[in-house]
Specification:
The chain is mainly α. The chain contains 24 helices and 9 strands. The protein starts with a helix and ends with a helix.
Length: 616
């Protein structure tokens, strides 16, 4: 089915309002307030579109559109909806703030235990996680932008007081999230003969290069990046000595939480004491992608235009931007290490730190590559090869291909998902895990991002068809009955023959939020001018030239006695021709169609005149 961002977002908003509002007031439900990640994702399902798409604005009740009001009628009238959102967000901030006034970023029930015989301790469930740090950046920026407009539109004194409290709490949480992201970044240096080194060399060599050849190529390819990391002494990571040795390999990115022994970040903001780090200094692909997604919101056009960051936050944002750029460059070069055959094209990807392999990790590397391709001008070859990877992932992940009997992919990617061991968590109790079941939603998100980026007709068409196929799959997985109708995730609807693992949480806010993000991205894609075809432009110009010539010839003929209809027809033709000329560079197809219409009208006038001459 075609992706219709406006209609699909209205459907999602209607489902969210039905699930999360009762009598016009926000309700967290049984699983609310148990995970800062899930709670932030739920709020973003409403706040993200409301602050990114003008037609979905809720911060100015006078401009709220009728179909938006209708979709959110369970949340109240146009005046009540923004007030209720402010109240719900303020409650979120209070809930996820500790007794010491420090913002908390608990993973909560998103954490799992690797030992099925032991439950996680409450201390473990309260550990901050990169998913929450990143999601909080996006939520806080959306909230600050929302408040900037809404506070000038409301007259309710109680809401004005809540807004003042919420602005302070949101700013503090944003700073704390940025600091936590800085303390979660790590560079892992290791020898080629270590288990990590052997895994990386095998991954990059693909059985075609020896370990020595891989090391030589790594040294050459990453010399400048190694120097850039070494020179950035303010990164707060003690790896300079190891990086100076070019015989050492390295990885950079984000650990699952704040790194153990990570130094505190100096800030004048009142974010409370900075907690001790827990995670081992090992980057995770999944958490690196999550961090990159949130960090880019800090320097988006909207953030800069509205001036959402204070001077202290701007400094932190610049430090995060440096890590963002270094990480993208590193993984983009790793993904394209061998020009003849990219390591990314050798599915599935194998991680060095956790010794796991899965199509999900291939998608994670592809996601970072998409980030990099969006940052710099991508070549047609880069795009074409990345599109092919996305198509293969969709097929291997049983998104665009049928499942086989006892298909392991359904369990590994969609049902139970990929389980990550969280290294370092065993110091607090049973070893912790993090499961990713959003393969399809992530694949859709990256495909639409690539589609937005592509200006090549062939690649764009392939990506758009792939996005529509994946969206078919995702739309099928909406919950049809019970709690969370219209939201996600009903895996059994897409895989009726598979044995589906029953989840304890009725609604997956992570998948619902990612589908919402995709709709916002699709809206931005359709806002772009269509891809211009040089061949069509030349044809349109040729038709316009012929049309202008024939029009001039027609204007020299004597006007027939038809009460001025002939003159009106000529003026109509002139208007169409002028319109076609203004569109020929940006929309050559439309100009082509208008020119054809003009030629048809001119030919009709010529035939009418010839018939009249024969009659005389």
């Amino acid at each position: 089915m075609q992706i219709k961002p406006r209609q699909h977002l209205l459907d999602i908003w209607q489902a969210v309002a039905r699930h999360s509002f009762s009598g016009g007031e926000w309700e967290w439900g049984d699983w609310g307030k148990e995970s800062s990640v899930a709670d932030a994702e739920r709020l973003l399902c409403l706040l993200y579109p409301a602050t990114e798409i003008p037609a979905f604005r809720l911060d100015d009740p006078d401009t709220t559109q009728e179909d938006v009001q209708q979709a959110l009628r369970r949340a109240g009238g146009r005046l009540e909806v923004p007030a209720n959102l402010v109240t719900a967000t303020a409650e979120f901030m209070r809930t996820h703030t500790g007794e010491d006034k420090r913002p908390t970023f608990a993973g909560g029930y998103y954490f799992g235990s690797a030992d099925k015989t032991k439950q996680l301790t409450e201390e473990q469930r309260q550990v901050g996680v990169v998913d929450s740090f990143s999601m909080s950046v996006t939520l806080c920026l959306a909230t600050l932008g929302f408040l900037k407009i809404y506070e000038t539109r409301t007259r309710r004194s109680d809401i004005k007081e809540t807004i003042a409290e919420l602005r302070v709490a949101t700013s503090n949480r944003l700073t704390a999230a940025m600091v936590s992201l800085l303390r979660s970044f790590t560079v892992n240096v290791f020898d080629t003969d270590s288990s990590q080194g052997v895994t990386l060399c095998e991954l990059l060599g693909q059985g075609r290069m020896s370990q020595r050849q891989v090391l030589n190529k790594f040294q050459s390819r990453f010399r400048s990046l190694r120097a850039a990391i070494n020179e950035s002494v303010f990164l707060g990571i003690d790896v300079q000595e190891g990086l100076k040795d070019e015989n050492q390999l390295f990885e950079c990115g984000w650990a699952w939480s704040m790194v153990r022994d990570a130094p505190e970040v100096e800030t004048s903001e009142a974010i409370g004491p900075q907690p001790e780090g827990v995670a081992n200094a090992v980057p995770y692909l999944y958490f690196t992608v999550v961090a990159l997604d949130g960090i880019q919101d800090l320097f988006s056009d909207r953030t800069l235009t509205l001036g959402l960051l204070n001077p202290e936050q701007q400094k932190l944002a610049e430090a995060l931007r440096l890590r963002w750029e270094l990480t993208q460059q590193y993984w983009s070069r790793i993904a394209r290490f061998d020009d003849e055959r990219w390591p990314l094209e050798d599915l599935p990807w194998r991680t060095t730190g956790q010794k796991l392999e899965s199509e999900y990790f291939s998608l994670s590397v592809a996601a970072i590559l998409v980030h990099d391709l969006m940052r710099r001008r991508a070549t047609d070859d880069d795009l074409t090869r990345t599109v092919a990877v996305m198509e293969r992932l969709a097929e291997r992940g049983r998104v665009t291909s049928r499942m086989v009997r006892d298909d392991p992919m359904v369990q590994q990617l969609h049902n139970v998902g990929v389980s990550l061991p969280l290294q370092g968590s065993e110091r607090l109790g049973p070893p912790m895990t993090w499961s990713m079941t959003d393969f399809s939603a992530q694949l859709l998100k990256r495909t639409v991002q690539l589609c937005t980026l592509s200006r090549n007709l062939s690649s764009h068409d392939r990506l758009l068809r792939l996005a529509e196929d994946i969206f078919d799959h995702m739309w099928l997985r909406r919950i049809r009955d019970g709690e969370g109708v219209g939201l996600w995730d009903n895996i059994h609807a897409a895989y009726p023959e598979a044995e589906i693992h029953k989840r304890r949480v009725p609604v997956s806010w992570s998948i619902t939020e990612r589908v919402t993000e995709v709709m916002v991205q699709a809206h931005q894609m359709y806002q772009q001018p269509p891809i211009r075809s040089l061949e069509l432009t030349e044809l349109a110009r040729a038709l316009l030239s012929e049309s202008a010539h024939l029009l001039g010839n027609e204007q020299m003929e004597p006007a027939p006695k038809d009460d001025g209809r002939h003159g009106m027809q000529l003026r109509n033709i002139e208007v169409k021709l002028r319109r076609a000329r203004t569109l020929v560079d940006e929309q050559p197809g439309t100009a082509y169609a208008l020119a054809l219409e003009v030629l048809g009208q001119l030919d009709a006038l010529a035939r009418a005149r010839e018939a009249a001459d024969r009659g005389v």
